Amino acid sequence: KPVILWFRKDLRLDDNRALHAVHRSGRPVIPLYISEPESAGTGPLGAAQAWWLHHSLEALDGSLREQQGRLVLASGEALEVLCAFIRESGAEAVFWNRRYDPAGISIDAHIKHELEKQAIEARSFGGQLLHEPSRLMTGNGTPYRVYTPFWRALEGGGEPEQPLEAPAKLRIASQLPKSEALESWKLLPTKPDWAVDFTDLWTPGEDGAHEKLRAFIEDALDGYKEIRDYPARPATSLLSPHLAFGEISPARIWDATRGLSKRVAAADVVHFRKEIAWREFSYHLLFHFPRLASNNWNERFDGFEWRNDDDDFKAWRRGMTGYPIVDAGMRQLWRHGWMHNRVRMIVASFLIKDLLIDWRRGEAWFRDTLVDADPANNAASWQWVAGSGADASPFFRIFNPVLQGEKFDPDGNYVRTYVPELRGLGAKYIHRPFEAPKSMLDEAGIALGQTYPKPIVDHANARNRALAAYNATRDAA
Ligand code: FAD
């Protein structure tokens, strides 16, 4: 009797524990992906991730076809779909890898309960994280709220499980149920096709993920600690969307960074692992404090008086704030569905503090536009910048977008890549075009207020306004 292998955000054959368990059992597998309705609580799927999902499902289907199988696609409430497939195929078991977002957890618990009532074996496995979110706890048995002790526990807590190779020969059920057509899900943009440039950077699917990992270890890991903060340098792994869709497991990444110390400085490897650990920490927080997803973790922020000006929000989204590093970041996001981490911090600080717009609006925009949108990392990072999070940067740390630009994009190459109308400006004024002499702007073909906006706020005033709003909240608490 076959086993249904229910794929979710684990679109891979390598190091897939549920897949391995089916394989080891010797039973034939029915590989299934379900598009769950938004009302189930796990969605909505952002537009950029819809693009990714389309290509990732295609890639997974391709890998299964190499094994004389294919991926079955279905849409609807997961329990209903599973029950229908069980009836049709005579399957006696459903296996899956666990998800850790609050909606996913409750759907899965319900499904497990219902299937077991029908004497269907429902088994779930780990592997989306290095460790289960309850494995590392403080000495008092409580969850961690601060990253550094969490990291120490992770580092000293024993090696994660060894990744498992993809089975060489999968036994796929000879009679697979009919699949819906991927095209009918309409995941790709039509007109305009805003994703045209995505393929410059991305190859969704597990081969693409492994290639990114290989290239990163060969070309960029050496020096990572230093250079990772410079957005014009190709210095980070670009693994985030692959992790978000589970096309590669964190254990596989961890394992690949073992034994490199002859070629790469140990500090670089440790720093990279620390970033993977930030992802673990975000999930640890979300798992133990599910309200983090959409509520201020620190309730003091509930009374914060946001301005929420719609014109400002629009200027931010379109990369038209008049602050080049902010605009470059927002346009990189639009063009490639991704933004460099340093710049994410700068644009988030600008939205929250300079514009006094609720972090949740920024988080939602990122969710719609990032290919790596992740329920734990996105919410935890936005709250980190806002100062409302668990182990957060204090609110009064307000980035100066000009100085940040000058420090981390000293030649202005990042700005020139994404804000072409400033291309003619030299390094001295590229981050502060509003201070450039008129003759220089004329020579560079820039008419401020016409070809490129004047700053929508004065940073020094905005900073004072933000601090006043913060102090008012603090005094009221
Ligand atoms: P690398 O530097 O190569 O890091 C390797 C991996 O470590 C990443 O793929 C990611 O899984 C993890 N990682 C790195 N930095 C962080 C971090 N600060 N927090 C948590 N995990 C981290 N990351 C997401 O994956 N999804 C999001 O939706 C997301 N939203 C963010 C929103 C804001 C406001 C900020 C400031 C950061 C956000 N991040 C998010 C974290 C970080 O910016 C990205 O993970 C990183 O830029 C991805 O690029 P990379 O894979 O090349 O990173």
Outline of the structure:
Helices cover 47% and strands 5% of the residues.
Oligomer: single chain
Give the C-alpha Rg: 24 Å
The overall pLDDT, averaged over residues, is 95
Say what the CATH topology of the largest domain is: DNA Cyclobutane Dipyrimidine Photolyase, subunit A, domain 3
Count of DSSP strands: 5
Helix % is 40-55%
- What is the number of helical segments per DSSP (H or I, 4+ residues)? 20
> CATH superfamily name of the largest domain?
DNA Cyclobutane Dipyrimidine Photolyase, subunit A, domain 3
Our count of domains comes out at 3
Proportion of β residues? Answer: 5-15%
CATH architecture of the largest domain: Orthogonal Bundle
What CATH first level of the largest domain would be assigned?
Answer: Mainly Alpha
Query: Which class best fits the helix and strand makeup?
Result: mainly alpha
H/E element order = EHEHEHEHEHHHHHHHHHHHHHHHH
Domain Photolyase/cryptochrome alpha/beta: 1-130
Protein name: Deoxyribodipyrimidine photo-lyase
Keywords: Chromophore, FAD, Flavoprotein
Organism: Rhizobium beringeri
